[in-house]
Amino acid sequence: MEKVAFILKTTAHPTRIAIVQLLANQERLSVTELSEELNIEQSLVSHHLTGMKLKGILSSHRDGKNIFYALKMREVVDVIQCLAGCTFL
Description:
The chain has helices at residues 2-10, 14-25, 31-38, 42-54, 75-84, and strands spanning 29-30, 58-63, 66-71. The protein is of the alpha+beta class.
């Protein structure tokens, strides 16, 4: 239960949930790709990515000028999908 609580606390924002959902379907995405897909400012995406990376949800690596992010903790997807399937939401 502590791990589930940690996941919920770390992803408790619509933008963070959207980032996780995008990364669940792609091996890796750059900040620019995520910003374009979500149609929000790159600085705001970077803010959310940094927080989730510090908490161990995401990993990143630099390729030239771009930083690519990937899901490190795949269980996050399961928790979000479980909640999305609840009939009371």
